Amino acid sequence: MNIYKQIFKQIKKYDTIVIARHIGADPDALGSQFALKNIILELFPDKKIYTVGNPASRFKFFGSQDKIDNLNTSKAMCIVLDTPDIKRIDGANINNFEYVIKIDHHPIIDKYANIEVIDDNACSTCQLILEFAFANKINLSKSVGEKLYLGIVGDTDRFLHDYTSPKTFKLVSKLLEQTNIDFTGLYGYLYQRPINEVRFEGYIYQNLTLTDNGVAYIKITDKLMKEYGVDMNNHRATNIKETKIEQMDLILCATVSHKQIVLNMYPELTGKVYTLKEYVGIGKEGKNMDIKDPWGCNIETYKQCAEEIKQCLEMLIDNNSKKGI
Questions:
Q1: Cα angle 206, 212, 215; round to 5
Q2: Residue ranges in 238-298 assigned as alpha helix (H)
């Protein structure tokens, strides 16, 4: 049975479904989350469907998140979208659910679901939700079409990145034909920015510190973000697919698992990818190669992590100076 049909079978089975996504939500995570919720409710209006995770004020046009603190999920299903690793799931503990499904376009990090759809050739998770809908012959409403279109546009930067494939265009073309959305009118939702964010960006440019080696940096504190009223829930890391990584001479990773992900995606970069500790000579022969991820730990752990990175970078600069680099 087609994997999307298997997912649809499970959706039919469960009366209570929680849809989660990653922390620091972006348009793809939110678009896929709320689009899937709408798809299910339009087909099965009696089901209880919840979307969870910290809200992102900049993208509130997608919809409002639900609270499930008092919800009994022992007989419920959780669908996790756009999230390759367990620790980045926002708003849901997958261990409390009877059944878990993962749909994601990132390289695999953790295997944690009963059914996993992972396609790192897809431009976005919204593309995978489109594939799910069309595989099950589901007619998309205008509201669903708008959310999926915005998610795809967000992750491809308006179809500019090279992982925007012919398949992406075919799916989007079918979406436009079926929903007749006003796609040009949607761009304002993504690109309008609050004035406080513009001012904060100006502060960053004016207060960067430039090292002798041409590296610019700035330390941003919670106090500073509160002063400017900036919501860091809108922040997201840059996907390496959005870079020119193939042209880089050296790629330094925090952990061995990160290094392996890069090499799995770009095997031609073998000999150019190292962990930071490995490259400066601290970690050798598979031991002490990682800089511990401080996510979820206390402030002291974050400080220790920062100090560890600083020491490694100082060693890197010193080593390069000795080599005349």
A1: 55
A2: 256-265, 276-280
